[in-house]
Amino acid sequence: MVARLDAQVGEFDRDTFRKLARYGVPMIGWLFGLTLLTFVDRVLIELLAGTAAVGIYSSNYALVQTGLPLVLSPLVQAAHPAIMTEWSGDNHEAMRGLIAEYSRYFLLLGVGATVFAGVISRPLSALVLGRAFHPGYVIVPIIAPALFLWNFAMLGHKGLELAESTGTMTLGIAVAVLVNVAGNYLLIPPYGYVGAAVATLSSSTVYAGFAFVTSFRTVRWTVSKRAIAHVAVAGGVMAGIGWAGYLVDATPLVAPLLAGVVGFGAYAGVLVAFGEIEGDELRKAVGEIGGYDW
Question: For a disulfide at 57, which of 9, 109, 193, 284, Cβ 3.0-4.6 Å?
């Protein structure tokens, strides 16, 4: 490959190296912090609550961690190249509008998927996991919002990426890790693995808040207040239908599943009634998630 490129192997561009180091070295810290956020709760559950609690927590955590990002992550991944391509170095207002647009799509799709994950948590755990792990389904409605907020923050901190402020990103995730560790130490002894789930939600909330505050220094992260209000109402309706499904004790598996499906339909119906979802926008959002050109 080197021969075909006719490259000088010994060439060394100091400016390029400095730029890579300035951007990449702090990014290593960010990735290390992400690894800590992913695994430190399991270590602390082991120390403070025992091995059995780790098994229950990890297995139910894996259910939502495997399923929910299938909806959340593709939209974030689709937004990244679009935003980076449009960035000229000084078109902050255009970037602000583009990030706001993707944030709105994320809300419309992500809130419904997050509530759905919480609603079907009990039947999903019962169908996929062994009986000993079933009690852990209670963490799914806590972990699902944590994953939602974390992925939402990946859009919110795009301004830091554009400004190559990876050091600031590393600072943010360091704060989130400290909040996670402190929360685990405080909450696991009295509440077990449920306390660990709350600590995870707290750290995700902190990082999302950090992304919002620091965006004022780069490209401000704005989200449509109208969309937030409409999604909140639709999500509340869906959650209410899901709760009703859990009140039907005679069918502990079928009722929540049915409530999840009906609730998701109601969620979409409320958004359509508010005029929040239009045909062209829906096709665009689904197309970007699936990688299709409509």
Answer: 193
Tell me how far the alpha carbon of residue 189 is from its chain's centroid: 27
pTM, whole model, 2 decimals? Answer: 0.88
Give the side-chain half-sphere CA count within 13 A for 192: 13
C-alpha 73/C-alpha 62 separation (Å) is 16
Q: d(Cα 141, Cα 197) in Å, to the nearest integer?
A: 9
Q: Do residues 48 and 185 make contact, with C-beta atoms less than 8 angstroms apart? A: yes
Terminal CA-CA length for the chain: 38
pLDDT, one tens digit per residue, over 76-134 is: 999 988 898 888 888 889 999 999 999 999 999 999 999 999 999 999 999 999 889 99
Count how many Cα atoms sit within 13 Å of the Cα of residue 102 in the half-sphere of its side chain. Answer: 28
d(CA 109, CA 153) in angstroms, rounded, equals 15
Q: How many CB atoms lie within 10 A of CB 116?
A: 23
Strands (E), 38-118: none
Q: How far is CA 168 from the centre of its chain?
A: 20
Q: Which residues of 140-170 are buried (b: 16+ CB within 10 A; e: fewer)?
A: bbbbbbbbbbbbbbbbbbbbbbbbebbbbbb
- At 81, the amino acid letter reads P
Q: Could you tell me which of 104, 78, 165 has the C-alpha nearest to residue 173?
A: 165
Q: At what angle do helices 69-86 and 92-119 cross, to 10 degrees?
A: 180
Q: Quick check: 105 and 152 in contact, CB under 8 A?
A: no
Nearest to 184 by CA among 196, 175, 193: 196
